[in-house]
Amino acid sequence: MIFEPSELLPRYIKSTHDIYKNSSILKLLPCTNFTIRYLAHIVLTDVEARKRFRRVECLKGLRAIVRNCKGPPQLKPEIIRLLFGIYKKLIFEVPENGQWAASVLIKDQLLTDEEIQWLIENCKQSMHLLNRLLLYPERHPAIMIWAEKAYKAREFPDREGEIIALIIQDDIPLYVNQSDINLILKAISRARVPDVTKEALLKKYSNHENYDTLLDIALRLKMPSLIRYMIAEV
What we know:
The protein is mostly helical. The chain has helices at residues 5-12, 16-21, 23-26, 33-48, 55-67, 77-90, 96-106, 113-122, 127-134, 141-152, 160-167, 181-190, 195-205, 211-221, 224-233. The chain has 15 helices and no strands. The longest helix is centred in the first third of the chain and has 16 residues, at 33-48.
């Protein structure tokens, strides 16, 4: 089954019970569009039919296959729709370990405007939804608007740096409190901006007092030019 999933999956896996029963083998499957589509369709069908099955175990099985990719899974849009359908239906229905598994299914995936809007409307109900917004893989206008409103209302004070990162474009917006420079530098390091912009902003807002933070950022982002800049400034 591991080597020929397109032939063997339809023969041996026909229900969520089969997924659970064969979970140890299924977790070894390669992360392909066929494999994810086939298994996700079975799971979503039973979820929508409100059938009783081992939901957490099935979510963990799908998560394991998604994690078998070396990088972010390159899934077709229609498969992402299946995974988001599972996520949307189960994220508030399963216990915490199931919620973590469900979140991996859509991590680093590009969502539709409607799916992003659903996350925005419901993010206060779960940190898992909030994480998907804060860690969305690319700049999205709806997320930027949401982040600005969330920052000004101080809705998530413990995630302030990540929220600031979403609203940085060419510079730090004037309404952002810059009293904590270390927080600002970390936000810049996470911003969805070109490296040249990121480096220029890091230089602009840093000073000798926070070079430790800047060094950590330079090493993490693999920016030797930042290290040379600090040496020259000392």
